[in-house]
Design a protein that fits this description.
The protein is an alpha+beta fold and 356 residues long. It is built from eleven helices and 17 strands. It is globular, with a radius of gyration of 20 Å. The relative contact order is 0.13. The model has no long low-confidence stretch (mean pLDDT 96). The structure holds adenosine monophosphate. The site of adenosine monophosphate has 13 residues, from strand 14.
Length: 356
């Protein structure tokens, strides 16, 4: 296989947050240039990229100039407006492709896609109004979770329904947005698989990580995860099946619930994923380099895990702990260059390397 994207080419990255930043660093290590497109001011990725465009997703002139300046396009988040993608796709190849975005932008489409693949999901129903919610509650029962179909992240746009009495308030919380109802899954723990698929269809997965969330935000990822050998194999096969079905190119995250009845797919993210940050200090080739390799048409790298790692997100005031963490042995610090610390805001992460 030849290197499809010549070294020195420019990669366009949509989204200038920490994921875009770490993708940009990985791309520059491989000799590529990066151009970031981001609507918000002072994007963290802008500090480490060759070029930055600050413009809205409906600014057609800016989108066109961005698309014409790059050789390929990738992204750090899945909620890119369809119109922007329509315009960009005529200017440069977009990886991962449109199908991955279409499926993952809408929780209902995503759940139906997973079910059609024969994978286990939480029982779910399409909710458009009070009548459909009541009907779904009669079938799915409580506890359950109402989630907006689109634009939900880090637990936002979700309302728990503990008893049918909560239904009206939960529906009001959706503020009229289309939603799905999901049965509440009783899980032992949550894991995720970070998988990569290359342009020529090769698939590789990192060792699954075990995730702990609070307030809907990922706090820690631990490798190895508590999984039996069979579960570990199943988790990787599920991710590979999804990647193949989407004809996927790049890195994706697949979140799974570990239950007494096996693995249940919660959601897929068509991008590098917070729960894959441990790979930066646990593998020769981390998820960011793997993504760049995949979209550039390079062979996938060696993602074998060589250390036990606990990745801990630094959220809001956790930044105050950085001086102490800097003195801690076997602790790799990754900060995102965000100027303002806010509660709930991801400011950085640390990878604690565990020696046996
Ligand atoms: P999501 O945005 O769908 O990834 O949900 C955020 C977090 O909420 C998940 O990582 C779980 O901890 C929890 N959660 C979401 N959906 C369910 C479910 N159907 N059953 C149990 N917990 C859930």
């Amino acid at each position: 296989m030849t290197l499809t994207l010549p070294i020195g080419s420019t990669i366009g990255i949509i989204g200038g947050g920490q994921l875009g930043r770490m993708l940009s660093v990985a791309a520059s290590r491989l000799g590529f240039r990066c151009h970031i497109y981001e609507p918000g001011a002072n994007p963290p990725a802008g500090q480490v990229a060759n070029q930055v465009t600050i413009a809205a997703y409906d600014d057609h002139a800016a989108l066109r100039a961005f698309g014409e300046s790059v050789d390929i396009i990738t992204y750090e988040f899945e909620n890119i407006p369809t119109e922007a993608l329509d315009l960009l796709q005529d200017l440069a190849p977009i990886h991962p492709g449109r199908e991955a975005l279409r499926v993952s932008q809408d929780r209902l489409t995503e759940k139906m896609f997973l079910r059609d693949l024969g994978l286990n999901t939480a029982p779910f129903a399409d909710i458009t109004d009070a009548a459909s919610l009541n009907a779904a509650l009669a079938e799915i029962g409580t506890p359950s979770i109402l989630k907006t179909r689109r634009f939900g992240y880090d637990g936002k746009g979700q309302a728990r329904i503990m008893s049918p009495d909560d239904a009206a308030q939960a529906l009001a919380d959706m503020e009229g947005a289309p939603a799905i109802l999901e049965a509440f899954v009783t899980f032992a723990h949550e894991v995720s698989v970070i998988a990569a698929r290359s342009l020529d269809g090769a698939v590789a997965a990192f060792d699954p990580g075990e995730n702990v969330h609070s307030d809907g935000i990922l706090r820690t990822t631990t490798v190895p995860a508590r999984l039996s050998q069979n579960q570990r194999t199943d988790a990787v096969l599920i991710a590979a099946e999804i990647a193949n079905a989407l004809n996927y190119v790049g890195v994706m995250g697949v979140e799974l619930f570990v239950t007494a009845d096996g693995l249940i797919v919660n959601e897929i993210a068509p991008r590098v994923h917070n729960s894959g940050h441990w790979t930066q200090n646990g593998c020769a080739v981390d998820q960011f380099e793997q993504h760049i390799r995949a979209i550039a048409g390079w062979p996938l790298g060696d993602g074998q895990r060589y250390a036990d790692v606990v990745m801990e997100n630094l959220i809001g005031d956790d930044m105050d702990r950085v001086p102490e963490l800097a003195k801690t042995p076997d602790c790799a610090i990754h900060l995102y260059g965000k100027s303002e610390t806010k509660p709930g805001r991801k400011m950085g992460h640390v990878n604690h390397i565990k020696r046996g």
